[in-house]
Fold this sequence. Notes:
about 250 residues, alpha/beta, two-stranded parallel sheet, 10 strands
Amino acid sequence: xxxxxxxxxxxxxxxxxxxxxxxxxxxxxxxxxxxxxxxxxxxxxxxxxxxxxxxxxxxxxxxxxxxxxxxxxxxxxxxxxxxxxxxxxxxxxxxxxxxxxxxxxxxxxxxxxxxxxxxxxxxxxxxxxxxxxxxxxxxxxxxxxxxxxxxxxxxxxxxxxxxxxxxxxxxxxxxxxxxxxxxxxxxxxxxxxxxxxxxxxxxxxxxxxxxxxxxxxxxxxxxxxxxxxxxxxxxxxxxxxxxxxxxxxxxx
Length: 252
């Protein structure tokens, strides 16, 4: 049984972040959730500590202070603006997180990257073409994030590289390989990704490493219509969130 840890989870209310938070609490860990704005969501566990901070503009020392492991599950919405000109979320976030950790004397950091940073030739040809067009700039920025981490010798970082993320129950039977996912795999369940991240937090495995994680899913999970449906659902959700943010800003 691992001793309880204090985990700072940046991006705790995102799809992957929520999995990390839920599983961390079930393992007996303490969670400090860090977001620039917390949604009015009653499903968020009441036992987490909430700290408001923006990784792109704030000094994060106080937000991270006292935590044993910092986990960054930040993600960029797939709005047209983000695809064409993604804001420097991953790069600026990496700089500010590592600066704060060095100032606090903290060492252990785990971030979510992507297998496609190292190998974009995964999945069927149509998928490679579509994802390359839509996400090339985001994958490039993730690669820059990893280079920033490598330039910090006093940070024990791990950059976890999942495949194309999907929903689904935790299986814990995923495949972990160095650098990039196996050529015959393409999908990664968010629940499995969270499980592996917490394993790394508890064990100290893969320090200064880039483990890739994926799982053999049914063929239906990688059909063109299925992936397109997921992509459109994500874009629609992102657009709705932006409209709500716009309305809220004008109502203030």
